[in-house]
Amino acid sequence: MLPKPKTILLLLSIVLLLLLIPFIAMQFTNEVNWSVMDFVMAGMLLFGTSLLIEFVLRKVKSTKHRILISGIILLLLFLLWAELAVGIFGSPIAGN
Q1: Which of 62, 65, 91, 94 is the most buried (most CB within 10 A)?
Q2: What is the pTM of this model?
Q3: pLDDT of amino acid 66
Q4: Any residues with CB less than 8 A from the CB of 57 and at least 6 apart, and which?
């Protein structure tokens, strides 16, 4: 069951606001150099993670389990993000 359209719109808005941070930084410094594909991948990761956590919050009743599962999802997001950004594990998805 999909979340309500209002929820999806809210999540998309938050993801777009987060993606504005590197976009604005690119206007002021050469230290941030994202391509269109970087924005697409970041958007997909952030939106997918937010949908997954929203699903967990709707389906899991125990607050303790909600926090644990959401924490694991966020940890996986950060590990994947770090791997894609700098290849900390040296896997093929990082281009190594």
Answers
A1: 94
A2: 0.88
A3: 97
A4: 66, 70
